[in-house]
Amino acid sequence: MPYPDLKFGIFLAPFHVVQENPTAALQRDLQLIELLDQLGYDYVWIGEHHSAGVEIIASPEVFIAAAAARTRRIRLGTGVSCLPYHHPLMLADRMMQLDHMTRGRVEFGVGPGALPADAFMLGIEPADQRNMMLEAIEVLVPLLRGETVTGKTRWFELHNARTQLMPYSKPMIPMSIASQVSPAGARVAGTHGLGLLSLSATSSGGFNALAANWEIYARKAKENNQPIDRRRWSLVGPVHIAESRTQAFENIRYGIDSWVRYFREVATLPIVPDGQDTDAAQALVDSGLAVIGTVADAIAQLKRLQQQSGGFGTFLQMAHNWADWEQTRKSYQLFARQVAPEFRTGNNHGTASYQRARGLES
User: Fold this and answer.
1) 331/242 Cα distance (integer angstroms)
2) What is the DSSP track for 225-258?
3) Pairing state of beta strands 175-179 and 239-241?
4) Domains contained in the chain, CATH given
5) Could you tell me how many helices (H) and strands (E) the chain has, helices first?
6) What average pLDDT does the chain have?
C-alpha cells in the first residue's frame, strides 16, 4: 500500500429532492456531520450552490460555523467556494474569521462554479468562469498568508488590501482546487502549491486521468518550487454499503433515481453513465463509479483507486441520500468501523498481539 493511514470524509453538496422540507433537510445535514465527528471521520467538504433547489446550501461558511459549534475534531471545508461569485477580499476575510472561530479546523476548497443557472443569474458568462477563478486565486493566496495586495482585473480591484486578522493556521488556511477530468485544476494546484480535490475520481474519464493529472500537478509544482505531497490529494466517489449487496441495492431504491435524474438534467459533473438504463444503480456499479454493496466492495474500490493513482491522502464519500436516514447512518458506521481500519495502521499492534497470544496458547 503506497500511503498508509488514509484519511476519510464526505463531500456534502448536499443532494435533497425538491419535494423535501428544506429546513428539516439542512438539520439532517448537520446531524450527519455530528455523527461523522463521533465516528472518527476526518473531513467534511460543504458545497455552494444558488439554483435548482437540490444542492441547497448557499453559504458553506455559514454552514461551517454552525457545524463547528456541534463538533469537536472533524475538519470542515468549503467544497467548494465559487470564486467568480465573490470579491476575493470579502471571501478571504470570511475564511480568516472562520479559521479563528474553528481554531484551525477550516479548509478552503475553491472552484469556478458548476451550475450554469448560478452564473446566468449573476450575469457571468460560463466561458469566463475559469479565468475569473485563476485571477481570484492569484490574490487569495497572498491574502490568506496575511500579505498586502494591490491589483486590478476586469471584475475586481484591490488597493493595499489585507485581511484584518492574521491566519490562525500557519502559514495559511489549507487551500485546495477542485478538479474533474481535465488537467486544468491540477495545473493550478501545482503552480500555487495547493491541495487537489478530484471530484470525478471514480467516473470513467476521471479514473483514467488520475495518474496523468498527478504527473501534471507534480511537474507544475516542481517548476514553481512548490512542495509535492500526495497526502494533500483527495479523491471523491459515491458509496453505500450494507450487510449484503442485496440489502445495499434494496436500500438505495429509496432515492437513487432522483439523484441520477438531477445529474442528467441539471448538474454538470460527468459522473452518471450516459443512456437511459433501466437499472441506473447497476450501471453505476458496472462502470466503477459507485460502490453499492458490502464492506469488501468498498475496500476493493479504495485499493483500485490506490493502484490507478499511485497513492493519495484522503477518500471522500460523495454524500447522496440514496437510502433513508437510518440506512444512510448504518452505511457510514460500517465504513468507519470496518473499511477505514483496513487503510490505517492503528490496529497493527493489536493484531500482532492477538497472533502472539494465540501462538502461546496453541
Assistant:
1) 6
2) T----GGGEEEEE-EEE-SSHHHHHHHHTTTHHH
3) unpaired
4) 7-361 (3.20.20.30)
5) 13, 12
6) 95
Per-residue pLDDT tens over the stretch 146-193: 999 999 999 999 999 999 999 999 999 999 999 999 999 999 999 999
Helix (H, G, I), strand (E, B) or coil at 289: coil
Which residues, at least 6 apart from 129, have a Cβ–Cβ distance to it below 8 Å?
A: 84, 112, 113, 119
Kindly give the pairing relationship between strand 195-198 and strand 239-241.
unpaired
CA atoms within 13 A on the CB side of 210: 24
With CA atoms as reference, report the closest residue to 291 among 340, 242, 231. 242
How far lies 300's CA from each of 17, 54, 351, in Å? 30, 31, 21
- The residues near 53 (Cβ < 8 Å, ≥ 6 apart) are 18
Q: Which residues contact 201 (CB under 8 A, 6 or more apart)?
A: 207, 210, 235, 236, 237, 305, 309
DSSP letters spanning 144-187: HTT--EEEE-SS-EEEEE--SS--SSSSS--EEEEE-SSTHHHH
Provide the grid cell at 4: 498508509
C-alpha cell at 246: 442485496
What pLDDT is stored for residue 301 in this prediction?
98
Instruction: Count Cβ atoms within 10 A of the Cβ of residue 264 and give its class: 0-12 exposed, 13-18 middle, 19 or more buried.
Output: middle
On whether the CB atoms of residues 121 and 82 are closer than 8 A, the answer is no
C-alpha cell, 332: 457510514
Q: What is the pLDDT of residues 202-260, one digit of tens each?
A: 999 999 999 999 999 999 999 999 999 999 999 999 999 999 999 999 999 999 999 99
Question: In sequence order, which residues have a C-beta less than 8 Å from that of residue 258 and are 6 or more positions away?
Answer: 17
Contact 242, 327 (CB under 8 A): yes
- Where the chain has pLDDT below 50, the residues are 1
CA 358 to chain centre: 42
3-state secondary structure of 46: strand
What phi, psi does 31 have (nearest 5°)? -65, -35
C-alpha cell at 104: 484551525
d(CA 298, CA 307): 14
